[in-house]
Amino acid sequence: MISYFTELNKLTASVNDALSKLGITTTSVYVGEPTEPAFGEITTNAAFVLAKTFKKPPYEIAKDFLNKIEYDKENLSAEIHPSGFINFRFTERFYLSFLNEILKNDGFGEIQVKEKKKIIIEHTSVNPNKALHVGHARNVVLGDTFYRLFKRLGHDVKVLNYIDDTGVQVADLIVGFKYLGYSLESDDKFDHYCGDVVYVNANKAIEENEELKKKRSEILKDLEEGGEIYNFAKPIIEKIVREQLKSAWNIGARYDILNWESHFIHGGYWKKMFEILKEKGLVKFIKEGKYKNCWVLLDKKILIRSDGTTVYTAKDLTYAAWKLGLIHDEFYYHVFSKQPDNTDVYTTTLSDGIKGLYTPADEAYILIDQRQLPLQNLIKETLRALSVSKEYKVIAYGLVALSKNTAEKIVKGKVEKEFVHMSGRSGIYYNLDDLMDAIKIAAINLINNRNPLLPDKEDTASKVAIAAIRYSLLRPDLEKQIVFDIDDALKLEGDTGPYIQYTYARASKILEKANQEFSKLEEINLSQEEKNLLLYMSKYDYYLLKAYSSMSVSILANYAHELAFRFNVFYEKKRVLDEKDTKLRTLRLALVYAYKLIISDLMNVLGLPTLKEL
RNA sequence: GGGCCCGUAGCUCAGCCAGGAUAGAGCGUCGGCCUGCGGAGCCGGAGGUCGCGGGUUCGAAUCCCGCCGGGCCCGCCA
Question: How far is the CA of A571 from the C1' of B63 (A)?
């Protein structure tokens, strides 16, 4: 494959060669994208670095230095900017070679990292007592997109979803069903009903009633021990999980294995973990003072309470150890459900099903919001102390809050702050399913205005909604807090997911009408719009690998928009089907064809559905 | 008190890791472009003390230090 990335690598090597011949071994020389398109496609500041050693103006040095760089003159032309930068520009030959490669391979082909790894990624992991809200959606969409990226780069990837079925939030819900008389049937989607009605009200009742608090503690203990209440709760939790999965599938996610917290306790995994920690002296029993009768990890965090029950960190540490093979997998597995992509999601069981489905990963990724970072770092630290060489990688992202305007709609009253954090317990959240529905309605209205004869309006509107939601959650930098505003979310113009879908539809329509096959293209003069589009297309592997090395999917979302923009400019400025010159018409058609291949590849990595028409 | 993250146009955000050449998008706003390869688009205008102050450097939005503002964590919750 010939691409921006291959040429950049070759040139970087040449520049470094030339530098080492001069006896310079510095690493501070930049070879890469310039700040402005006017400065070419690849630039280097080598002359500035050399200026320090040779005490001559950068421009003079650049003139000599350029002669020492061996570069492919077929693909690159060089010029020296008066400032001293050496700028390289791709030749028409490069663009045509690239385009011909795409046509030959019918796409970009394989893009592989040097070392293929076995990776697992855990995401979603929402408490099974409520529906997914837009904050959870950020976790799902980021996790699913990292999964897609890893897979596109050739890794062996499995997706895990952890279900905390022995926690306080589940206990609250069970209090509602067992002691407050809530029905187990509802006309609403079951996860919505549990979260919006049963959990919120049960939580309120428990806070005001000591008797119920006691009941909750009993339930919590029974869940850990796997008693009668656990068996009562199990089908309820499972029903909620099935609804949560539907919401996640609806925005394009998929999973391989569901892990249940209760299985790690009932299956004896925590016991093994505890033995290992004791053996290595990482936990201490406290005899005196505030933490009397507790077990404490690394002098920092209580793992076992004085009443003998374990805290969440203990369970999560066990889970991490299982992921990386420190504790052996002895689960049985069976199919939990068929998924929309036709794969199966498996669940662990303690007694029934096939064995050996899971083998330990080289790298285990986990997606968490920033609040959980200190705890996950403690787990990392513990694994290191246990000499686990395999990598535990934490991807943390900023919280999703509700805008003042959106929060006011939910609480049906005045809100003082500019934004408010979501809270399942107090009923302040915006559910993902509701967001999907709201965008679908907006999309259908738009279709009725613009393209009333479109078949499958419902399906198209769903796909527009998926693209809109995923893109809006992927585009901001990981660390940034997102303030969700429903009115903004309903806008489908500008820098959005549908903008990218729209270019795919435009390309599809042209190709459908043209109905032409392509062979190898001959030499032809390219316009600036055509070169710009080809340049961005040629950067596909460069951006995928950059996103991977910097663990940033927002880089990819921004790149997708840049690429789509180049297509729209080309589309506005150059006619394709009406072009009288057949050579030029064929070139442009080939360009549209290649664009469609690359943008659909990228859209697949980002999980944005393609639409031939909208 | 200790720690983490953020601060760039009216609003939402890129750019910062690897310092360099006129700081870029989107929304909003003002003005253009459809008897059409579909306008969910394109072109142009207005709009910026890159939170503030020092330091390093020939050169700082970018690196270092200090401060200010916003958010979060520091529990026998998860």
Answer: 42
Distance A105 CA to B33 C1' (A): 38
Q: Which bases on strand B have an atom closer than 7 Å to a protein beta carbon?
A: 4-6, 12-15, 17-22, 24-28, 37-43, 58, 61, 71-78
Protein CA A531 to sugar C1' B34 (Å): 26
Q: Which tokens in the block code for residue A137?
A: 């959606």
pLDDT range class, residue A47, cuts 50, 70, 90: confident
How is residue A196 annotated by DSSP?
I
Measure, in angstroms, how far nucleotide B74 C1' is from residue A395 CA.
Answer: 20
Cβ(A489)–Cβ(A467) below 8 Å: no
Pairwise CA distance, residues A128 & A256, whole Å: 18
pLDDT digits over A401-435, tens only? 999 999 999 988 888 888 999 999 888 999 999 99
Token reading at A445:
């209205």
Q: Which DSSP letter does residue A370 get?
A: G
A569-599: pLDDT as tens digits: 999 999 999 998 989 999 999 999 999 999 9
Query: How confident is the model at residue A27, as a pLDDT?
Result: 64
CB A286 within 8 A of CB A296: yes
Q: Are A607 and A252 in contact (CB under 8 A)?
A: yes
Cβ neighbours for A153, distance < 8 A, ≥ 6 positions apart: A111, A112, A113, A544, A545, A548
User: Stated in angstroms, how far is A450 CA from B45 C1'?
Assistant: 29
3-state secondary structure of A113: coil
CA of A492: nucleotide with nearest C1': B40
Closest protein CA to C1' of nucleotide B3, residue: A374
Sign of CA dihedral A219, A224, A228, A233: positive
ipTM of this complex: 0.93
Distance A38 CA to B20 C1' (A): 15
Q: How many CA atoms lie within 13 A of A255 on its CB side?
A: 27
Q: Which nucleotide is nearest to A508 (CA to C1')?
A: B37
A107: number of Cβ within 10 Å: 16
| Domains delineated in chain A | 4-90 (3.30.1360.70), 123-267+330-359 (3.40.50.620), 404-489 (no CATH), 497-606 (1.10.730.10)
For residue A462, name the pLDDT band (cuts at 50, 70, 90). very high
